[in-house]
Amino acid sequence: MRTKAVNEVTMAFLSRSCNESFIRSAAACFAAQMDPTLNELEDIKTAVSEAVTNAIVHGYPDTVGQVVVKLRIWPDNVLELMVRDHGRGIPDVEKARQPMFTTGGEERSGMGFTIMESFMDRVTVRSSLGRGTTVAMRKRLTPRLKTVK
After folding, report:
1. Which residues of the chain have pLDDT under 70?
2. Which of 49, 55, 113, 138 would disulfide-bridge 97, Cβ 3.0–4.6 Å?
3. Phi, psi torsion values for 52, nearest 5 degrees
4. CA distances from 141 to 2, 10, 29, 70, 119 (A)
């Protein structure tokens, strides 16, 4: 039997950089129901920001397309974040995951995947040339004791 998500939300938006801060905040608001620590919340915001920025900058470098973010809460306090674009795709995923590698020009650090991996428990990347990329991330949040008043 497959486990069902406790809660989920899906957001679709145009690949404009002005939407990145909205998605970052929306992801934090959704995760807040899990009562994360401030550090966990910052980790989530940073990871989703990096994935969305990659979709915008690298998925659609010369055009505007759609980016979809799906957030799910699983049992045992696990948060899943998926960021999908239907852009140009990544020619070599393993190379793209290497620190300092970028196709985005001098203004890009090439640290997006490294940052995602440092803040999340698991990061998977699926990509197909001309069809897009999906980045899926998971993080188990620290269960916090609730006091009854």
Report:
1. 1-2, 93, 95-97, 99-111, 145-149
2. 113
3. -65, -40
4. 21, 20, 15, 18, 11
Residue 12 β-bridge partners: 68
Which residues have C-beta within 8 Å of that of residue 69, sequence separation ≥ 6? Answer: 10, 11, 12, 13, 23, 26, 27, 48, 52, 81, 82, 83, 84
The residue type at 59: G
Residue from 97, 108, 138, 140 carrying the catalytic annotation: 108
107 is catalytic: no
Say whether 54 is catalytic. yes
| Options 20, 40, 54, 88, the catalytic residue | 54
Q: Is the pTM for the entire model greater than 0.70?
A: yes
Residue 106: per-residue pLDDT: 57
88 is catalytic: no
The sign of the CA dihedral 55, 18, 65, 139 is positive
HSE toward the beta carbon, residue 135, CA cutoff 13 A = 30
